[in-house]
Amino acid sequence: MNNSMIARRMQRVRPSPTATISDRVRELESAGKGVINLGEGELDFATPERIGYAGIEAIIHHQTKYTAVSGTAELKAAIAHKFVRDNGLHFSAQQIIAGNGAKQLIFNALMATVDAGQQVIIPAPYWVSYPDMVTLAEGEPVIVATEEQHGWKLQPAQLAAALTPESRWLILNSPGNPTGAVYRARELAALAEVLVDHPQVLIMSDDIYEPLRYGQTPFATFAEVAPQLADRVLTVNGVSKSHAMTGWRLGYAAGPRWLIAAMQTLQSQSTSNPGSISQAAAVVALTQPQDFFTEWLDKLNQRRQRVLDMVAATDGLSAQIPEGAFYIFANCQQLIGRTTPQGKPLADDKALAEWLLAEAQVAVLHGSAFGTPGYLRIAYAVDDTLLDEACRRLQAACGRLG
Ligand SMILES: Cc1ncc(COP(=O)(O)O)c(C=O)c1O
């Protein structure tokens, strides 16, 4: 390939580290290594059967043509129903758009609203794609480091200090990737209070992990908590994580009409509508009983405990108990600087993750990929036996560090 032909804007975007690690795992697997991948951001469960059948029926009934760019009327009604049922939020069809995953909607929203030099406040640790999407839109990511001791949540004073006349967005993600942190309504209300005096700022609430919460952890979303700011809030969600449908590529967003219209214009010139088959399946996912969650959450809860036990038993690792999602964000600062049995000192979290992949054949992601060095993200959405083996290998490998 001739590099001189690559557009300058490509200098502002890096390949997603999550995709890179998955490629590396596939490479090792094809070389016959028994790698266990705890780097992947998706549930191992099968898409519930009745949702799958809705997709098959859509094919049989020839629902296989273009649809409206922002989604079929049936899907929009199902999305509106979901927002009323789960969040007490009321949206008209013009305030809703479906896309190829939540990722496309976040991308479209930023592309449609961020001008060169405008700032987007992103609390760290963050989902890997936010900053690159902002820079691709010629905006400036303003990374605000949250603290483990604050449960990885943005504090109102931090928000106040980060705001400038150039601020265009604040991005919130709860339950959070990679920390599993879940904001309470009162915490969102306190952030809303700061934002009242900054009418130039839009708020993106990325709720993609909404139902994946443990114990009695309640859910709150920004638009519900701060109705006075509702005309500045984009609520993003999807069926990828909630319904084990990552491959179906179906996400949705709801917010002010002008913003949804702009996102729709952009989508009309890129991908058009999300797949008609996925839309039909998502109608069922969003409207039919969500009875599978109890079993899923039980399983995930046990796995979460398995990893927390491993972390507690491993010298040099520690972690907060995450309230949601399917990740443990483990502090590995005490392992940095230690020496491998091969005699190599581990310079940082990336070196540690690489060594764990080579030594224990377990893939985890380094915290610096999420803007927070000194941590490892361990995804526990894998089969129990594999997870057990992975935990044993990780603990044993860390024990070999000098
Ligand atoms: C925080 C967060 N938002 C959005 C997405 C994108 O989800 P989708 O599969 O719907 O594009 C992910 C996927 O990893 C995520 O972790």
From TrEMBL:
Catalytic activity, EC: 2.6.1.-
Superkingdom assignment: Bacteria
Keyword set includes Transferase: yes
SUPFAM superfamilies for this protein: PLP-dependent transferases
Residue intervals of the Aminotransferase class I/classII large domain: 34-394
Molecular functions per Gene Ontology: pyridoxal phosphate binding; transaminase activity
Biological processes per GO annotation: amino acid metabolic process
Cofactor: pyridoxal 5'-phosphate
InterPro entries membership: Aminotransferase_I/II_large, AspAT/PAT-like, NHTrfase_class1_PyrdxlP-BS, PyrdxlP-dep_Trfase, PyrdxlP-dep_Trfase_major, PyrdxlP-dep_Trfase_small
Enzyme class: transferase
UniProt-recorded name of the protein: Aminotransferase
